[in-house]
Specification:
By secondary structure, the chain is α/β, with parallel strands linked by helices. Helices cover about 40% and strands about 15% of the residues. It has two domains: about 20-50 and about 315-420, Alpha-Beta Complex (Aspartate Aminotransferase, domain 1); about 55-310, Aspartate Aminotransferase, domain 2. The longest helix is centred in the N-terminal third of the chain and has 21 residues, at about 75-95. The structure holds 4'-deoxy-4'-aminopyridoxal-5'-phosphate.
């Protein structure tokens, strides 16, 4: 993602070679009408829509292969296990690791971060230790650390936000010390769109002797990820933000880190030998996967990765940046509208967050909805960001591979209508 974010050339309208019209046909929901108008779906940072290829992979799995995994000696269980473990290998390939044992299935980013906070944090963080976060974090990368700090007496410290919606990274050096155990930061802000320079941050964090957790919920959707070159020690992400189903995501970490960590939850699948008062643990990755997993979800997630690779995953960010540049230009002409986040569209993924002088964010979203345009209004699970910029809520349009310039125009035209009602 970073080479694109630092690309000197501004995104042009045709900067990506995604064949958007053709790939829109893969998403059945996009041909719906909402409130008598063609749907314009601009709530992709909350969750993305799913292509037919993913829907078919999930229903095909249930129709033909469904069984529980690992335990059965029968044909269907073998097929289900192959599909489930094959999906893990697919995620490993996506992340650039050859070891599928380093990929732990979770319900999503939130559970992946909770797993690290609970297991790694419980074993490695004590009173007086420090964890560095930022004011840009989603509550999923904040509250688990608050819970850990309350349990252990550790201290949380924060990288601040600059006025332009980027991290004030000149403050990072001062926050890092021999007390720092972990730095946990988002790759891309869900409420501002800001792309963070994770690679540079990783070097600083490692020089200080700490580990880096990257919240990839918004990052993995927009460009391929190579965890090694990113410099992450833990990488967490969700299938549903990237054309996959809800309820499935993954945690990646290096094998030696995972091997040194205690289990997260107890139950079936995660054990080797169970006795009355003690048990031993299964090998990676199963040590962290108690209970029947989300098999169909894993199959759907693998299909989503195949889909994104097929359409050109590396093109998605460019496409979004072209849409963001167009949206920012159109929105800058709406009177009384204030946008948040970097002014340079090449420093953002496909998110535009804004407020209007006269209309509350929820009123904006309601009026847009009446025109078939789906945006989100609220604090976007980033109350620290809202506090920093002195607003209770923003309206947020977020773009993905299937959005078009024409949809951006419909959205901007509808904001003109909001302005005329409230202005
Ligand atoms: N981090 C960020 C930056 C997010 O945008 C989200 C989802 N909104 C999450 C974490 C949590 O992801 P999930 O709800 O899929 O666990």
């Amino acid at each position: 993602m970073e080479p694109v974010s630092s690309a000197p050339d501004a995104p042009a309208r045709d900067a990506s070679s995604l064949d958007v019209e053709r790939l829109r046909a893969d998403f059945p929901i996009l041909s719906e009408e909402v409130n008598g108008e063609p749907l314009v779906y601009l709530d992709n940072a909350a969750t993305s829509q799913k292509p037919r290829q993913v829907l078919e992979a999930i229903s095909g799995y249930y129709a033909s292969d469904n069984a529980n995994v690992h335990r059965g000696i029968h044909e269907l269980s073998r097929r289900a296990t192959d599909a489930f473990e094959g999906a893990r290998q697919r995620v490993a390939r996506f992340l650039g690791t050859e070891d599928p044992g380093e990929v732990i299935w979770t319900r999503g980013t939130t559970e992946a971060i909770n797993l690290v906070a609970s297991s790694w944090g419980g074993a490695n963080v004590g009173e007086g230790d420090e964890i560095v976060l930022s004011d840009m974090e989603h509550h999923s990368n904040l509250v688990p650390w608050q819970l850990l700090a309350a349990r252990t007496g550790a201290r949380l410290r924060f990288v601040e936000l600059a006025d332009d919606g980027t991290l004030a990274l000149e403050g990072l050096a001062e926050l890092l010390s021999e007390r720092t155990k972990l730095v946990a930061l988002t790759q891309v802000s869900n409420s501002l769109g800001t792309i963070n320079p994770i690679r540079e941050i990783a070097d600083q964090v490692h020089d200080a002797g700490a580990l880096l957790l990257v919240d990839g919920a918004q990052g993995a959707a927009h460009a391929p990820v190579d965890v090694a070159s990113l410099g992450a020690d833990f990488y967490a992400f969700s299938g549903h933000k990237m054309c996959g189903p809800t309820g499935i995501g993954a945690l990646w970490a290096r094998r030696e880190l995972l091997e040194a960590m205690p289990p997260y939850q107890g139950g079936g699948e995660m054990i080797s030998l169970v006795e009355r008062h003690a048990s031993t643990w299964a090998d990676l990755p199963h040590k962290f996967e108690a209970g029947t997993p989300n098999i169909a979800g894993a199959v759907g997630m693998a299909a989503a990765l195949d889909y994104l690779e097929g359409v050109g995953h590396h093109q998605i960010l460019r496409h979004e940046q072209a849409l963001v540049a167009h949206a920012m230009e159109r929105l800058s002409q709406v009177e009384g509208l204030r946008m948040f986040g970097p002014a340079d569209p090449t420093r953002r993924a496909g998110v535009v967050s804004f407020v209007m002088e006269e209309a509350h964010a929820h009123d904006i979203a309601t009026i847009l909805d009446s025109k078939g345009i789906a945006v989100r209004a609220g604090h976007h699970c980033t109350q620290l960001v809202m506090k920093r910029y002195g607003v209770p809520a923003t309206a947020r349009a977020s773009f993905y591979l299937y959005n078009t310039h024409e949809e951006v125009d419909r959205f901007a035209d509808a904001l003109g209508r909001v302005q005329s009602i409230f202005g």
